[in-house]
């Protein structure tokens, strides 16, 4: 069950719940799991709190300040599957935030066996 954390500057008119549902569905399809296995936590970055080279926009630009996405999942997926998940995530987040997938930063962190306790057991 991958946990996906999205941090992005606010975007007018964005329904985060619907966007998260769509992103989760895209990741689930790429990963070959059910959407209920993808957990998404979304936080808006406070306007002015995301600074690159002195620029601190108040809304999500399409060409800078990429949305920051972190996926943590148990290890064991092939490199090809991991790459498919990364690409699907960038496309889905970009689509929902109206930014090109090339302007979405996605980090995939694998959790070694027995380094995660969830649902009452070690994973």
Short account of what is shown:
The protein has 123 residues and is an alpha/beta fold. The protein contains 2 helices and 6 strands; from the N terminus they run βαββαβββ. Helix 1 packs antiparallel against helix 2.
Would you give an account of this structure?
The termini are close together. With 123 residues, the protein is α/β, with parallel strands linked by helices. The mean pLDDT is 95. The longest helix has 19 residues. A four-stranded mixed beta sheet has the order 2-1-3-4, covered by helices on one side. Strands 5-6 form a two-stranded antiparallel ribbon. The protein has two helices and six strands; from the N terminus they run βαββαβββ. 28% of the residues lie in helices and 24% in strands. It has a single domain, classed as 2-Layer Sandwich (Macrophage Migration Inhibitory Factor), CATH 3.30.429.10. α1 packs antiparallel against α2.
Task: Write out key terms for the chains shown.
single chain; 123 residues; alpha/beta; Macrophage Migration Inhibitory Factor; four-stranded mixed beta sheet; two-stranded antiparallel sheet; 28% helix
Largest sheet: 4 strands, mixed
CATH class: Alpha Beta
What's the number of structural domains?
1
* Strand coverage percent: 15-25%
Assembly classification: single chain
Q: Please tell me how large the radius of gyration is.
A: 15 Å
Q: How is the largest sheet built, in terms of strand order? A: 2-1-3-4
Distance between the termini: 10 Å
Reported by name, the CATH topology is Macrophage Migration Inhibitory Factor
- Helix percent band: 25-40%
CATH architecture: 2-Layer Sandwich
Ranges with pLDDT <50 over ≥5 residues? none
Question: Which structural class should the secondary elements be placed in?
Answer: alpha/beta
Rough outline: globular
């Amino acid at each position: 069950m991958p946990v996906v954390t999205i941090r992005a500057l606010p975007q007018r008119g964005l329904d985060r719940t619907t966007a998260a549902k769509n992103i989760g569905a895209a990741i689930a399809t790429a990963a070959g799991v059910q959407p209920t296995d993808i957990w998404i936590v979304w936080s808006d970055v406070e306007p002015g709190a995301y600074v690159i080279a002195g620029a601190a926009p108040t809304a999500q630009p399409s060409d800078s300040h990429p949305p920051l996405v972190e996926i943590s999942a148990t290890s064991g997926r092939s490199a090809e599957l991991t790459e498919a998940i990364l690409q699907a995530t960038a496309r889905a987040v970009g689509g929902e935030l109206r930014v090109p997938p090339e302007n979405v930063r996605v980090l995939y962190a694998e959790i070694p066996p027995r380094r995660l306790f969830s649902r009452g057991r070690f994973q």
